[in-house]
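FAQ

Q: What does a record look like?
A: Structure on top, sequence underneath. For example:
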């Protein structure tokens, strides 16, 4: 997974979880108090049905005790998937942030 303009990379469940812990601020309820809306997916599956790509847009909304309900970020995902034992799994995801609003209650830096 590539994260933001710095293109920091992490592979595997534990490194990705650590990356999120480094960047994402959690609130008293243990959540980031955000919702990520994913829209306009364009899915392309290879002829053999074993790999796929998906391009989509995301919009992040947030509401906290100090921040009113608002859109705080938006951009694009580029995903690669593999079919393993009949189930689709992410093999790679790249984030592209196209706009950013007030994120002080969402990211740590």
């Amino acid at each position: 997974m590539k994260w933001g303009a710095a293109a920091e990379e992490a592979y595997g469940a534990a490194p990705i979880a650590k990356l999120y812990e480094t960047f994402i601020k959690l609130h008293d309820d243990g959540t980031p108090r955000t919702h990520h809306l994913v829209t306009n997916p364009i899915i392309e599956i290879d002829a053999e049905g074993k790999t796929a790509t998906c391009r989509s847009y995301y919009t992040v909304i947030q509401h906290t005790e100090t921040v009113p309900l608002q859109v705080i970020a938006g951009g694009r995902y580029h995903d690669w998937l593999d079919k393993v034992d009949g189930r689709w799994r992410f093999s790679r995801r790249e984030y592209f942030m196209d706009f950013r609003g007030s994120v002080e209650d969402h990211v740590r830096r």
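Q: Is there anything notable about this one?
A: The longest strand covers residues 70-84.
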